Amino acid sequence: MMEPLPKHEYCHSLSLVDLQLEYAEEEEEDDDHDNEDHDDEDGDEDHDDDLDDDGDEDSCLITKEGFQGVCYRCGQEIHMYERYYYKCKHSSCDVSLHKFCGELLTRLEHALHPHPLSLCWPRINWRCNICKRDHKCLEMCYKCLECDFSIDVKCAVEEEKKIIHHPSHPHLLICLLPKAILCDCSACGKMHEGIFYQCTTCVGFSLHNDCAFLPKRLLINETTKVAFYHTHPLTISYSFPMNDKIAKHNPKCRVCGHGFDDMENLWIYKCDKCMYYAHVRCVTSRRESFLRAGLNKTVENFKDDDHPHLLHLPFPDETYSVPKQIFFKESGRSVEVILKHTSHQHPLVLIDQTQLNEKTSSEINSLLLMCHNPMTKTKLICNGCMRPVMSTMPFYRCPECCNFVLHEWCTRLPSQIENHPGHPQHTLLLIYSNILPCFFGVFVCAVCHLPCNGFAYCCVKCKYYVDVTCGFIPKKITHKSHPNHLLSLVQNPSGGCHMCLKDVDSHQLSFNCNVCEIYIHPECALLFSKMIWHSYDKHPMQLSYLPIENHKSEYFCEICEFYLNPHESFYHCQHCRQSIHTACAPLILESETHTYMYNLRSVYNFVNIKFGDIYSSGGHTHPLSFAQGTALDDLCNICGRKLQYKIIFKCHDCKEDKFAIDYNCCENVKRALSSFVSLDMLDL
Predict the structure, then answer these.
(1) Is 528-598 assigned to CATH 3.60.21?
(2) Which pLDDT tens digit goes with each residue over 549-568?
(3) Which parts of the sequence are annotated with region: Disordered (predicted)?
């Protein structure tokens, strides 16, 4: 039996709703609400409370992700991409209809049946003669009144459902071929097989069925591994204009680590609260099999048992270094209290906090107060490895009022190194700064390319010099910036550094992941510790490799006050929300004169230079101080060039007529002195 649709279905009038317009209005309201919340947050000094409130707000955003309703006639979901639907004008009534269901004809002709079909509501269970799906009684269908032929509404209007209104495109998109085809998707930019919606107006615009119906907002849950887990919902964006990429410092996908295509119209998922961007194919890859490529890169590709002495970087803090890792003596082992070391003319005295007693504590405590401490702007650098000398570590100091100190482990450096990765053909000999064949003991390390006036391992024949840290550079490491993969030391690299994004010199040693083809500068890997203390912040600052969550605004360095690219490595305080460049991090006394724009590297250029020594020469009346040039030093008295951010020699006694010269000029003048040309004779 069958009967027409019941009269109560027409007792209320229905209105046509533009679903995408309605959703856009809701989004505007959400944006206004977010702006109000943001204004409130700016006036709230308790940042931790703001972070806690974000969780509830994000849940609301997820639950409001797109309209979802059920058609009263066909029982199928009403999707936002179908754009139009009918709903009852009475607020107390929840009747909704697909636009095509609301406009269903009471009679229709179908190509699969010779008789006209009538819209009916059977009182018995029935089966669709097209899709063979069983239906319960009172489910609407088209039925032939002359024979037992019935089809459900879904099959009857299938042609209508092949057309979608997608917000990413101005024209209608039609599923021209109901069968799977191999085609390029205009959303994700990849070629894959499946059902596609195509534009008949624009040539070449096609959306894969899976991409076309991606959620407008989603969360990356914790099952996607910590590497790309994000607490905020990601919003789909149907383009990523080049201007936006440049403004955001050319970000990389936070899932796969690769950059974004130059094509501006490829879709991405992004966080509206942070600088978090991801390819559409990467975010959805755990749900869709055709988008799984590349995710296995986070799987550990080595066994710890195979590398028992593997160095895991970055070091925890500034008290760690490569020489300490290799030559540190455990507490309790006998060491010399008074040491005569070849590198210095005076005997050295051991200072060890662990061996304090009543007789020595007051004297040693006064010396410990002079140890390296960024919080009090106290700077003390080891003359051997150029790393800070902290009060918590044993070290030797010259008691003759010299500024000469050595870590305990730096006094036991081997006299030579065989088979160094950068110069395996010759043995490298340990040479101290007081006998280095370089002007004022300054050389450029062949590995990190940084100037240094500490101890060196060198090949005299080839004039090959490396500093102590690079002298013992490990051949294999792991690094938190690229977790779970082994990094090997290689020569002749090609590409940019994964940490600082600067180019890697093709003649420089570099750490490389041969799986992902990424490189890391030796200085970035070995000199940046995981945590530092700085006088600009009362909390420890953590090394970060990616933009910080809940930090959507621009980044600026608290020291040099220049902009900061959050996709490069930098130090950040989560409590105070302050950031500093890695190149500015070692600065203590120099910070007020340092300018980031002069530094083309992510490492402070003079991190391996110990300033403060005195240079006495017959060319000038007064002794000259070895220092870093500042803006106050003005121009070199010889070449007339600016001295800011250069190694210089300056006179502190010449008050009225400032006297300062560039390191290179001083070296040249020293040669000229052999011809009896004094500095004062050069209009200095």
Answers:
(1) no
(2) 877 778 888 888 888 888 88
(3) 22-54
